[in-house]
Amino acid sequence: MTPQQIEALFTRPDGSYLCARWERPVAPVVFGVDDATLSLLKGACEAVIALAGHRMAATDAETGANLMVFFLRDWAELLDVPDLGRLVPGLAALVARLRAADANQYRAFRFEKSGAIRAAMVFLRMDEALSAMPADNLSLDQMIRIILLWSETAFRDRSPLALSRDGATVLRPEIAGIVRAAYDPAMPPAATDPSHALRLAARIAAAGRA
């Protein structure tokens, strides 16, 4: 990918640039699925974190879990989750907006002082479109969306996933390259200057020559 294409993946609708990665180990917990789907989500989480060269943990020392994934049928169900309003300010207003927009997914992030991702919450309303996705594809898609703080429009026109030659669903190689480059120890945990995209492109190119 060109630096301009990479920059677009982290450029907000207001024109600002922001890329952030996790610093602390990711400690996930999932609500609203059966054991089979839970296993697929865990496997996708492990695969994406391994791709990044990052770490997982059973618990987070401060919050217990710092990645929470909720599966639900109606956005109103969020209002019944104990203490969720403390984690998501303005929860009632958010639910109203999501219902009005007929949205089927929403992600909320919290950040370290460094700007790195501290915690993430993923809310999935299993409408017809999401329910039609194979569970393993949905799991991989959602995990790649939280491993970095992508722009809201990053995958609006093209999924981060693709079909391999043998018909298996895989992560697009260029997206995998961005994730690996962003987690390079020499890169900052968060960046707001678009020149960061140039540094990502340089690392991807160097990895391709190695």
Could you provide a short overview of the structure?
39% of the residues lie in helices and 17% in strands. The chain is α/β, with parallel strands linked by helices and 210 residues long. It folds into 2 domains: 1-19 and 156-210, no CATH class; 22-147, no CATH class.
Q: Can you list the strand order of the major beta sheet?
A: 2-3-5-4
Shape: globular
Uncertain stretches of 5 or more adjacent residues: none
**Biggest sheet architecture:** 4 strands, mixed
Lay out the secondary structure.
Blueprint lengths: L2 H6 L10 E2 L7 E4 L3 H18 L14 E6 L11 H4 L3 H11 L3 E7 L5 E9 L2 H5 L2 H13 L13 E3 L5 E3 L1 H10 L7 E2 L3 H15 L1
Parallel strand pairs: 2-3, 3-5
Antiparallel strand pairs: 1-8, 4-5, 6-7
Describe, in plain words, how this protein is organized in 3D.
This protein is α/β, with parallel strands linked by helices and 210 residues long. It folds into 2 domains: 1-19 and 156-210, no CATH class; 22-147, no CATH class. The chain is 39% helix and 17% strand. The chain is built from 8 helices and 8 strands; from the N terminus they run αββαβααββααββαβα. The chain has helices at 3-8, 35-52, 84-87, 91-101, 128-132, 135-147, 173-182, 195-209; strands at residues 19-20, 28-31, 67-72, 105-111, 117-125, 161-163, 169-171, 190-191. It has a 4-stranded mixed β-sheet with strand order 2-3-5-4, covered by helices on one side. Strands 1-8 form a two-stranded antiparallel sheet. The radius of gyration is 17 Å and the shape is globular.
